[in-house]
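Re: that backbone. Tokens:
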């Protein structure tokens, strides 16, 4: 039987489609992940895992930054951007 930790730290994340970020956002996430500048991690070849307290500059769209703020409001320290992730009617979608 596996041992349990007491108490374990379990984190939640916001799951969202990459359709809600721009193509430029996607390119910038690729650059940040390759440089290791911020806690941005590639998910295979179709998405990103991003820490919501990362400080992005003007290179990222307001749509991207809004998603990080939405995640924080839902007490999620991470966002998983995935091409197969959920889409939300309240947010803009971008074709790329």
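Recovered sequence:
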């Amino acid at each position: 039987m596996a041992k349990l930790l007491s108490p374990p730290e379990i984190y939640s994340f916001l799951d969202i489609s990459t359709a809600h970020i721009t193509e430029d956002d996607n390119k910038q996430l690729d650059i940040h992940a390759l440089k290791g500048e911020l806690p941005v991690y590639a998910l295979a070849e179709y998405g990103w895992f991003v820490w919501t307290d990362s400080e992005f500059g003007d290179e990222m769209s307001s749509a991207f930054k809004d998603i990080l703020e939405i995640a924080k409001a839902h007490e999620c320290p991470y966002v998983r951007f995935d091409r197969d992730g959920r889409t939300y009617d309240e947010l803009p979608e971008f074709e790329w």
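The two ends are 48 Å apart (CA to CA). The mean pLDDT is 90.
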